[in-house]
Specification:
Elements (H helix, E strand, L loop, with lengths): L2 H26 L11 H34 L17 H6 L7 H4 L1
Length: 108
């Protein structure tokens, strides 16, 4: 298996797992019905949890979008090249975060 095949396989795995995560967060971010007979503190807790889940959903959706972009660009000449310093992004980083467009030093 070539490096490119390995990266493509990893991106596809991440897309599948991220889609599942997005679906879970969408379920968790459903509106809280006012007619539910829960206490005031419980309702505040539910609203707080919903806002946390909303943020997690946005993050997961962005990751999914970036993974799809990475998959579309895998055959580009500059795939795996840091957009800031133009050095090669190490394979380990790409396998860990296939959507990464910067090397570790530039990501800081």
């Amino acid at each position: 298996m070539t490096e490119k095949d390995q990266i493509k396989s990893r991106i596809l795995e991440e897309i599948v797992s991220t889609k599942k995560l997005v679906a879970q967060y969408r379920d968790l971010t459903q509106p809280i019905a006012p007619e539910n007979a829960i206490g005031r503190v419980s309702r505040m807790d539910a609203i707080n949890n919903k806002s946390v889940n909303d943020a997690a959903l946005k993050k997961a959706e962005l990751k999914l979008k970036n993974l799809k972009v990475a998959l579309g660009k895998i055959d580009d000449v500059d795939f795996g090249i840091c957009v800031r310093c133009k050095n090669e992004i190490p394979l380990g980083r790409i396998l860990l975060m296939p959507q990464a467009i910067t090397c570790v030093n530039c990501a800081r």
